[in-house]
Description:
By secondary structure, the protein is mainly alpha-helical.
Amino acid sequence: MSFSVGLLLIPYFIAVAAFLIFALLNVYHLIAYGATTKVSFLFTFVFLAGSTFIAYVSWMYLKDVDWTAQIMFQLTQAVAFEGF
């Protein structure tokens, strides 16, 4: 049996979509309910800058992968252990 490496992107995209939803909710709550002080703007900027940096590093690692490559594996028949 084999499957394409690109199939591994499905759980990755689900995780990225979940992160984006939580990040947007986080930024919304920081802006809507946080005091409009320099500290809240600083934390919002640090959060967005860190998220952007992580997305950039992720893109740099994933851009060179051949997503059409096939991963081959073989299922073998399980043999019962008769040592007892």
